[in-house]
Write the structure tokens for this entry.
Amino acid sequence: MAGGNPSGWLARAADSDVWWSFKSSSLTVAAAVTTLAIFALAFLSPVLAPHTPFDPATLSLSDGLKPPVLLSPDGDWSFPLGTDEQGRDLLSSIMYGTRLSLVVGLASVVVAMVIGITLGLVSGYLGGTVDAVIMRIADVQLTFPAILVALLIDGVVRTVISVQRHDEIALFVIVGAIGLSFWVSYARTVRGSVMVEKGKEYVQAARVIGLSPVLIMVRHVLPNVTGPVLVIATLNLGLAIITEATLSFLGVGLPPTEPSLGTLIRLGNEVLQSGDWWITVFPGVTLAVLVLAVNLLGDWLRDALNPKLR
Amino acid sequence: MATPSNNPPLLEVKNLRVEFPTRRGTLLAVDDVSFDIAPGEVLGVVGESGAGKSLTGNAIIGLLEPPGRIAAGEIRLEGRRIDNLPYEEMRKVRGARIGAIFQDPLTSLNPLYSVGRQLVETIQTHLPLSAADARRRALDLLKEVGIPGAETRIDHYPHQFSGGMRQRVVIALALCAGPRLIVADEPTTALDVSIQAQIIALLKGLCREHATAVMLVTHDMGVIAETADRVAVMYAGRIAEIGPVRDVVKQARHPYTKGLMGSIPSLGVRHDRLTQIDGTMPRLTEIPPGCAFNPRCTERGSRCLSERPELMSAGTSRAACWLHDRGGVGAPIVRETADA
Amino acid sequence: MPDCTTDGPIDGLGGGRFVRLTGLKRYFDVSAPWLVRALEGRPRQIVQAVDGIDIEIAKGETFSLVGESGCGKSTVARLVVGLYPPTAGSILFDGNDMARRRSQAETAALRRRMQMIFQDPYASLNPRWRVFDIIAEPIRAFDLSRDKADLEQRVGDLLRQVRLTPADGRKYPHEFSGGQRQRISIARALASEPEFLVCDEPTSALDVSVQAQILNLMVDLQRRLQLTYLFISHNLAVVYHISTRVGVMYLGRLVEVAPTDTLFRRPKHPYTRMLLDTIPDLEMTGRQRAPVAGEVPSPINPPSGCSFHPRCPFANERCKVERPKALPSEGGTVACHAIEEGRLAVEERSYDAGR
């Protein structure tokens, strides 16, 4: 496996088993291409999007509720996927919304990872009472669905602070809520890996030299748990995006002034009965494709990094 | 003791090649290996890890792990080809005609069933016996392999046995259907020295009584020396030397065998240094042309670099080395630094 | 401090008792968790891995510990380098009691002088690190190099010392064979310029021809660098080859200590004799080695008295109840009632000289 090393790492990466197993699975390549395309479209939306959907100055109600151009003669080529009732271009809304969903997803994965890895390292290396306490908390949290934990955290924050203030920091609240509801899987995996690595002789060799436990953790154990953590992070990214979408759909996520994919689906859902299906279907399809692609990547990564299956 | 010349061989292996297709090309793990085992004979197969000895054994019992496959050659048991049998038929041969013993007794036993049940099941698969008769036979087998209190132990589970006792159970399991050949792959490696001696004595005694031939695969020359009638020394997927065990130990003909024997610490005279063979066995991807041993050989000549030696007569043994050919090894080569 | 007394059995090697273990014990609690024990009414289970051993190692010698798996020899190795704290007893290293509290700098100075070589060449090197960084780690930890150039010089020298090349430092462990990895392991152990090396089965995972290379290397290094070895092995032939003195362990206790030749030519303890009987030797072609009855009992409930008595052909009533003391004998010690009472004569053994 190739690490992050300056000299010739590209050549080694191209020669590695992981790259080979990637190339030989066309489904994985398709998933990777899709993921990259969605990431690119989302993060380049300020440049690529045909409209800026959240600038009220550019909106015109006369453009409202236009159907997708290919499916109806009423379509307008400047709004390829149609518009909502306020005349916002759906394609641009989806691009901006995906960007927001990805930001929330990635940020909450990072939060969960930091909390989970730290607690997992501490738990696995120290063992004993500390380990027992951390793992029992993890067990208890696992008995609640992640979405419930996120709802709970969001609810608590809402009661504590005012509505305007909440809208301003909604992004951080939701990232924190999702992050806190997903740390358990990291902590458990890292703890397991630490217990395995801790017994290995190279860690004992470091102890004979007299390195401090913290240094041993950071220098020796951590690099060897990156594989499983990466797998969980990829699979969790999909889950985090879904969770955010669910929260936003339920109306407790991001405010409608900054719609993510989930918010778009909710807004579309409200007008679904009147036959304007595209407003909810296209964001929904985008969400499904994105999560499916990310999960396929995660599944492949798990198999590729598992030496037993190779 | 067996005399290979006047009996038809029990097992014939001819030009066996085992390959592993990988993305970097096909690896030849066993390369053109031929040998016979006579009825009742113990053939030791010795070599370093990666020499292809276990793969040869697995090929014979039909348990090569995919993607490994037999690419060429044939394996005959009592004159019948067994290397191309369909899986189901090979399974019958494996229990009834060939028994297998592996290094780790735990992997050969199912932890969920009592040893008696496993023995009875195996016996009934291969022999037409009633449940009561099969149990009686299982009990006899356990007694024969020296399990004290076999009457009660027969209903115990594998985890209730110690390592040595477990290996005895595995031997009983291999003997269930009265096979003609047992392939034993490192049967004593996982055991303590004092237990090793017990298991070897047991295996040897049982096989002599039942006239069962044994292919004993191990890296431990000591085990071979006191158990085998003949020994095949493998190096980089090929047989380097094969012959009566005493001759191979005392008068090795192949430079590799000589080095191997010298590197074993002995209780005779304490030498200051052990004989060592410099370098390491080449990886399967880097086997040199000519004789595979040539980069480490102290006696190589120009011929060794280009022409591959086949097994040829060398005293009472046969060795794959040009030293024993009338043409010799060719022009001597100045050894460049081949240290480490 | 007794470190400067020179009445040790092999004080000719200089330095007297360099390493001294006294009454060393290490017990492990392997009980089920408290709740399970309480519910099922099970008692605590304590493994007496090391149960009171005394060893003195002189400077420059190779002291070997042999025994079957589970006899506690690896635990002794880990106790000596401080991977486990002892349950009881003391470890004196060059006159310094390892259990004494001292400043960080003093502790580092002591630790620098003793290093360890491990058994498994595949687990003892961090797979994510380059060989250079693996070997440089002790140098950096003990702050032994002046600058980067000095560090590179040192690592290069160490690699050459174990017959690898400085260019090998850029590679990763998986690019090496088992024997080469063990060389890297040795280079790392030598990096802090230690005087005392604890070698835990350093060749058991290797093929014989590679084992010979590593053993020869260890002998060369010992001469060149005046190293003292504590060598742990289950392979008596290897021990015979490399040791100055040998200690035989059984169920956490030392049953016999003797200079190598005495131990192999005139073994005293019945367990030592049994072990010697089981050595597979090339000279035995066609002959049967004497199989020994019985197996090692569990160290959780070791037999009373002499723990070897259930397997010993010479055991009597006294052996079942009274634990034998280690009594001096021919430059070493033996813990056996039969020898002490003269019931068991010393046995002379010879081995075929050549092959």
Q: What stands out?
A: Residues 127-193 of chain C form one domain.
